[in-house]
């Protein structure tokens, strides 16, 4: 009983803040509910409308998938490149690693999103730098051709978390393998693609899964940069932002709950596909693959 007593705060959090809301959300997804009146059971109507006739749902899925497919590979490539650079025994390297990790501590904040909107505004610092070389930059935030790209750049800038994980993986690669490859005449690129990458595939797989899930759930940059509208013309209408609009602007809580469970399903499908595909390219030294 003493053990359960000490575990009780965790159980309260689990049932009160996780499982309880999940069950309530699953029920509400089959109802019409606006917070002010009793929920009315409508069965599969919310899901049928979302999947059948909701154009903004399809647009938000397209924007989110574009963001995921662009930001995750770029962020991981940038993180791996910096991890390789920082995996050196040089004086002051701990300080440089801390500095490189700093953007990830700040990148998800509202303040950084506001700063990003100012940097890429019509009269922002980015266009100011372009003006020095004679380039008349666009209004990156207001132009639908560039607005999503600015959020992708912000996501790539938040490379610290996967970089630290890559760095831990690099430090676990035995030096003997690289030394033997050098003796055999292998160059830097050959050692990187024939030794480093294969031995890092479990770390790469972990980062791909985790960063993709995070990208699917991205909200703050789109909300702040577009002032909560998902504009211009829906070019930054992330799935989570559309869900927020339905829940807290239009007060369609049942509809928003259905959107949330569709997002859960999409992430589950991606995770399943990722784990099934990992059998073909992820190398685990302890099981001979």
Describe this structure in a few short sentences:
The protein has 13 helices and 2 strands. With 289 residues, the chain is mostly helical. Helix 3 crosses helix 12, helix 10 runs antiparallel to helix 13 and helix 12 packs antiparallel against helix 13 (253-281).
Rg = 23 Å
The structural domain count equals 1
Q: Count the beta strands.
A: 2
Low-pLDDT windows of residues: none
CATH architecture: Orthogonal Bundle
Level-1 CATH class name: Mainly Alpha
What fold name stands as the CATH topology?
A: MetI-like fold
Q: Into which percent range does the helicity of residues fall?
A: over 70%
Beta fraction: under 5%
Any idea what the CATH superfamily is called? MetI-like
Class by alpha and beta content: mainly alpha
The topology string of helices and strands comes to HEEHHHHHHHHHHHH
Which descriptor suits the 3D outline? globular
Q: How far is the first residue's CA from the last residue's CA?
A: 45 Å
Mean pLDDT: 89
What is the spatial order of strands in the main beta sheet? 1-2
Please give the count of helices.
13
Biggest sheet architecture = 2 strands, antiparallel
Write up this protein.
With 289 residues, this protein is mainly alpha-helical. It has a single domain, classed as MetI-like (MetI-like fold, Orthogonal Bundle), CATH 1.10.3720.10. It is 72% helix and 1% strand. It is built from 13 helices and 2 strands. The chain has helices at residues 2-28, 45-53, 55-86, 93-106, 110-119, 125-132, 147-157, 160-171, 175-183, 188-216, 220-225, 239-249, 253-281; strands at residues 31-32, 40-41. Strands 1-2 form a two-stranded antiparallel sheet. The longest helix is centred in the N-terminal third of the chain and has 32 residues, at 55-86. The protein is globular and about 75 Å long. The two termini are 45 Å apart. The model has no long low-confidence stretch (mean pLDDT 89).
């Amino acid at each position: 009983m003493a053990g359960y007593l000490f575990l009780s705060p965790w159980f309260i959090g689990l049932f009160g803040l996780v499982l309880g809301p999940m069950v309530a959300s699953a029920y509400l997804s089959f109802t019409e509910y606006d917070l002010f009146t009793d929920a009315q059971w409508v069965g599969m109507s919310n899901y049928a409308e979302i999947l059948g006739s909701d154009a903004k749902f399809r647009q938000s899925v397209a924007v989110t998938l574009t963001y995921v497919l662009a930001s995750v590979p770029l962020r991981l490539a940038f993180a791996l490149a910096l991890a390789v650079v920082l995996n050196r025994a040089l004086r002051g390297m701990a300080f440089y690693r801390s500095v490189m990790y700093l953007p990830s501590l700040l990148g998800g904040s509202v303040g950084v999103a506001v700063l990003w909107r100012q940097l890429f505004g019509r009269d922002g610092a980015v266009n100011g730098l372009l003006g020095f070389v004679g380039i008349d930059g666009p209004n990156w935030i207001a132009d639908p051709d560039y607005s999503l790209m600015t959020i992708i750049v912000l996501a790539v800038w938040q490379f610290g978390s996967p970089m630290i994980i890559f760095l831990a993986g690099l430090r676990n690669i035995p030096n003997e393998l690289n030394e033997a490859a050098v003796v055999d005449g292998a160059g830097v690129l050959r050692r990187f693609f024939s030794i480093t990458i294969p031995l890092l595939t479990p770390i790469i797989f972990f980062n791909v899964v985790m960063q993709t899930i995070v990208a699917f759930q991205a909200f703050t940059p789109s909300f702040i940069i577009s002032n909560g509208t998902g504009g211009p013309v829906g070019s930054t209408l992330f799935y989570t932002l559309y869900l927020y609009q339905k829940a807290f602007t239009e007060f369609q809580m049942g509809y928003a709950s259905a959107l949330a469970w569709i997002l859960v399903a999409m992430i589950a499908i991606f995770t399943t596909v990722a784990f099934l595909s990992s059998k073909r390219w992820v190398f685990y030294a302890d099981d001979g693959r």
